[in-house]
Amino acid sequence: MLMELQEYFEPIDYTILEKDESPNSVGNIVKIYSSDAPFPDLETMDMVILGIPEERGAITNEGCKDAAPYIRSKLYGLFSGDYPIRVADIGDLRIGNTVEDTYIALAEVCTSLLRMNIIPIIIGGSQDLTYAQYKAYTPLGKMINIVSVDSHFDLGKNDSELNSQTYLGKIITDEPNFLFNYSNIGFQSYFVGSESINLMKKLYFDVYRLGQVRSDMEEVEPIIRDADMLTFDVSCIRHSDAPANANASPNGFYGEEACQIIRYAGMTDKLTSIGFYEVNPKHDHREQTSYLIAQMIWYFIDGFYHRKNDNPANDQEDFIKYRVNVKSMEQELTFFKSKKTDRWWMEMPHSNEAVKYLHNPLVPCSYRDYQAATHDEISDRWWNSYHKFN
Questions:
Q1: Which of 161, 164, 199, 247 can pair with 126 through a Cys bridge, CB separation 3.0 to 4.6 Å?
Q2: CA 252, CA 175: separation in Å to the nearest integer?
């Protein structure tokens, strides 16, 4: 397995790294495949960083293939938290003769890592690589949830070629299809047509406007808690905080909000892959965006090592169970609250037993969903989940 993975990658140039000499710096702890060090042993690793210098699917953002070295140079100068870090950097993926070859290679690599219970941290490259990130789950034969932090939906049209603005449409229509749910965090209404919003509603996907998310960042946590994979388009961060994107907008998330979202992702027990896309060094004033993405990866690693492993599906003794009668419902609603973290879940009734085996009927939610039920109201999150299970 080790030799097979090594064949996919080029070692990184060690001279670009801005490593601090301290033994506690990230660069001195991560096992780095470079011109000065061999391909790392992955058997004891929790996470693997891999660069993907691919941009043939980029739309008006040529130059994003060069992002990984800049982000690495900033990441490896940071200091680690007070916990053992078991992370390797396995270099840059060898790009295929065609972009389709790159998709296949990335999917195969990620599948191998997932089977080893190792989380791929992907540094793109253009966001169409999300399609390959998704395809890595197909050989595992499990339904998955995707969370996208993006100002757009990237649906494209039915006959559109696969690129950074159409990848989601390709995932939705992929056969065989293993997408159970899609959630978008931070879309901006003036970038999204009404027909796209209506399609999301028809598919019972969960989409959240930028203003809605920023008004209560804690509500982001249960959205991400149910994710198997997360894809992050840097253009969803406002230009003043992250200028390294040809499509950057004056509005978007602040840098600290992006870091908070990614720390939630790290803390999510279920999440098994994450990708950062569309960083374009050509537009990066003083390498500010590379600094920010490096800090976001730091927060992801920090979140991972603070995972709580609390899920009522595993052991209900550590949870308080609440039953709520809602006047408009024929059956009572069931909620679970963790004694350890105060996080909430809701149990989905299901008429189709096959669905139960495809996906856990315990869906992450917030205290607000429980409060709504106690006032005879059903939250959008509950309704969307209910339609997927029935």
A1: 164
A2: 34
Q: Which residue type, as a one-letter code, is found at position 1?
A: M
Within 13 A of 26's CA, how many CA atoms are on the CB side?
24
Are 323 and 280 in a shared domain? no
Range of the structural domain that residue 353 is part of: 316-389
Q: What is the pLDDT of residues 337-366, one digit of tens each?
A: 999 999 999 999 876 655 555 567 899 999
User: Tell me, what's the pLDDT at 16?
Assistant: 67
Residues 336 and 277 placed together within one structural domain of the fold: no
> Is the pLDDT assigned to residue 329 strictly greater than 90?
no
| Residue 311 domain-assigned (yes or no) | no
DSSP string, 352-375: -HHHHHHS-SEEEE-HHHHHHHHT
Give yes or no for residue 17 having a pLDDT over 90: no
User: How many other β-carbons are positioned within 10 Å of the β-carbon of residue 10?
Assistant: 15
Angle value at C-alpha 230, between 226 and 235, nearest 5 degrees:
135
Say what the pTM is: 0.95
Rounded Cα distance between 7 and 100, Å, is: 18
Lowest mean pLDDT, pick from 42-46, 147-151, 331-335: 331-335
One domain, residues 330 and 200: no
One domain, residues 239 and 356: no
How many CB atoms neighbour CB 265 within 10 A? Answer: 25
Domain identity same for 40 and 157:
yes
